[in-house]
Records
---
Amino acid sequence: MMTDKITKSEAEWQSELTPQQYAVLRQAATERPFTGKYVHNKADGTYRCAACGQALFSSETKYESGSGWPSFWDVVEEGHVELKRDSSHGMMRTEVVCARCGSHLGHVFDDGPRETTGLRYCINSLSLDFDPNAQ
Ligand code: FE
């Protein structure tokens, strides 16, 4: 299920997000490794976009990559993220953005768990809001 795209001015985003969230979500900054609040979160639930609330990742595909950022081997539903070529910082990487609001989430690499998709979605905690499953 795809919801309508969200378009807001940068001034609107800036007023709704914390400065730290704004820097990552709207300016593609990267939080320092091992500083994010979800790096070691092992609870069951859904990780949503911190900017627009769209469901992005499930705890069922979260794993310990050792990278210092929350890592997932798949998205919760096809079409909820978009991939973009990113040649910034002298590297060729694939950027992951929220398909609904266009906010920066992180990058995806092909060194994920071999027994799964082989992908590693390397996502900033600041880009996510964890929605725990009801007990
Ligand atoms: Fe979003």
---
Amino acid sequence: MRNSHISFEFFPPQTHEGVEKLTNARRQLAALNPEFFSVTFGAGGSTRDRTLETVTQIKAEGFEAAPHLSCVGSTRENIRAILNTYRDAGIRRIVALRGDLPSGMATAGEFQYANELVEFIRNETGEHFHLEVAAYPEIHPQARSARDDLLNFKRKIDAGANSAITQYFYNADSYFHFVDECQKLGITSPIVPGIMPIVRYSQLARFSDTCGAEIPRWMRKTMEGYGDDNESIQAFGRELVVKLCEKLLKGGAPGLHFYTLNQALPCIAIYQQLGLSK
Ligand code: FAD
């Protein structure tokens, strides 16, 4: 039986070694019976073939695969072709995103925001795909205000998205507040928290600076204090993320989406401590 609303995200590997590593990680995570595995997509189409290859492998292993699809820098014709390929490959779920233009890429293409992509997919393919969209409990970095961002999130739901996955965060209150605000606007679709296990502090700090996810000061200071002692950082991070997940699930979160960075063990450790594998 699949664990409903438990999912794992991968990026498409670039090398043969990376493919083998991901295949192993996937095998280990498959034992946890997730609802689906998702695979990221480089904005501008840079990973188009590798994303397709990875989702095709996942499907062949008997699991639901959800490719991410970002529209920035793309044309309708491009997106239509990708949708047809996914439909032909038996894909039923897509994570629909705007994406961020890679530096040096001048044109925004024919889509400006993710709500336009959701609308386009619905017009082209009806209800064939279950559409996930991104949500930002700590506010998207380019949003003019929290209210604007919330209303922009609602546009994606109104355009036909079925559910959402959040950017990662370490402050559960931001998630509960966001869900409350959505409910006030009549949004009842599941909003699944995105969970980032803590594996390497430097990497996490870099990601967080660019995507607008906050690492609270006390967490930064504690992890900085561990210096090169990665084992202590991981133990600290594991305990913290387990507590976060417990709080989220107890508070009514409909599930968890793990950003795996193609590594199984950190997610498995969290999963086991949560008692989800029973
Ligand atoms: P949008 O929902 O379009 O929002 C982008 C910004 O524009 C926000 O500030 C919003 O408030 C504003 N906005 C939205 N609609 C409007 C409107 N109609 N008018 C005016 N302003 C508007 N990136 C990748 O490149 N590949 C991936 O595979 C990928 N996967 C992701 C998965 C998840 C779960 C998450 C949370 C993010 C992912 N990202 C990925 C990152 C994402 O592409 C970036 O965060 C990007 O900056 C925004 O994408 P979006 O779909 O949220 O955009």
